[in-house]
Write a structure and sequence with these properties.
The chain has 350 residues and is of the alpha/beta class. It has helices spanning 36-54, 72-81, 123-130, 139-143, 155-159, 165-179, 196-199, 216-223, 225-248, 319-329, and strands spanning 13-18, 59-62, 86-93, 103-108, 187-193, 205-212, 263-265, 276-284, 301-305, 308-316, 337-342, 345-348.
């Protein structure tokens, strides 16, 4: 299942997104002296410098390098046009109460807890981060009927999760691990949430909330240049570890428990024997109806990997045919990719 770095599956381009900027200050401290946009820019630039110094062959792109306003759509477009392998959006959290503190890591999707209301937990954070589109002159032209304050607007977003979810979760795990014990003490965990900027990107992507500007302890650390550097160094170590995994293999462990879960075949469309080639379009934490409208008329093969269900279409015993299928499928699913299915093994193909 492993792939060598020479297979062109190398972490070659990283986009770092400093949240907010310009006319959008983001969250503001109670004394009005510290702005989220300033903190995120400093952390993003420092992280970019660290990656460039360690990996001169990796292209690092900042969605903004100064105090300017960049739309959410433009942030995602920068990453998509660069064909980035990883998108990191840097933010600082806030709350009306002063007691909440700590860091959290977010990937695209709906709550992994099927018994919890999707919007009850992090809807305040999601609405605040997505509401910056209201600052755009004509946001309805770009985002249609999307209303950041209306939970119904998130339904389509939560359904159309991209096929990079598993790698997003893997990187999120590494960030969570490396931030532990750092200047921001409380680990608020990893969650799947419908952030607009993540939904519009076509690569593994995470949104980091690196402390609460509304909490005095977190704010003290965030205001310190030395402490911010320590926080950034920990994020960089997560990038370093992820690059080692990415360059060596695209096999990503299951998101919990520390051990790779076995692949369990859940469909009944298996051929008698031998490897087949297919196009992966989704990797989500729930089993979907094969007749669901999200499959646009295709009948998917479903394979469970740990907590994730992966969905494959365009299946063929010929790699050349599967590649032709991929070309057509990408018109509907832009981030789809080719895989080889051989018994219990599923590996990504060039």
């Amino acid at each position: 299942m492993a792939h060598a770095a020479g297979d062109n599956l190398r972490l070659s381009t990283i986009v770092i997104d400093a949240g907010h900027g310009g006319k959008d200050p983001g969250a503001v401290s109670q004394d009005k002296k510290t702005y989220e946009k300033t903190l995120t820019l400093d952390i993003a630039k420092t992280l970019a410098d660290k990656i460039r110094a360690a990996y001169p062959d990796v292209k690092v792109i900042l969605t903004r390098s100064d105090d300017r306003y960049v739309t959410l759509g433009d942030r995602a477009d920068i990453a998509n046009k660069a064909e980035a392998n990883l998108f990191i959006s840097v933010h600082i959290n806030s709350n009306a109460k002063t007691s909440p503190n700590g860091y959290s890591v977010h990937v695209l999707g709906q709550s992994s807890n099927k018994n919890r209301d999707l919007y009850a937990g992090n809807m305040e954070i999601v609405s605040r981060e997505n509401s910056v589109i209201l600052l755009e002159d004509d946001y309805t032209t770009t985002y249609g009927d999307f209303d950041p304050n209306d939970p119904e607007s998130y339904i389509f977003m939560s359904l159309m999760q991209n096929s990079n979810l598993e790698q997003s979760i893997r990187f999120a795990q590494l960030v969570q691990k490396h931030l532990a014990g750092g200047p921001i003490k409380t680990d608020r965990g990893i969650s799947q949430d419908p952030f607009l900027v993540l939904w519009r990107t076509a690569m593994p992507a995470v949104l980091l909330e690196l402390g609460f500007i509304s909490n005095s302890t977190d704010l003290t650390a965030l205001r310190s240049q030395d402490e911010r550097e320590k926080i950034t160094e920990r994020v960089f170590q997560a990038v370093r570890e992820y690059k080692g995994i990415y360059d060596g293999t695209v096999d990503v462990p299951a998101p919990e428990g520390g051990q790779k879960a076995p692949v369990v075949r859940t469909d009944r469309q298996e051929t008698a024997s031998g490897a087949v080639y297919a196009v992966q379009i989704f990797a989500v934490k729930r089993k979907m109806d094969p007749k669901a409208k999200e499959f646009m008329g295709y009948t998917p093969r479903i394979i469970q990997f740990g907590e994730l269900y992966k969905y494959y279409i365009g299946i063929s015993d010929s790699k050349a045919t599967a590649k032709k299928n991929l070309t057509a499928i990408r018109k509907k699913y832009p981030d789809a990719f080719l895989v080889k299915i051989d018994g219990d093994q599923v590996s990504r193909e060039d």
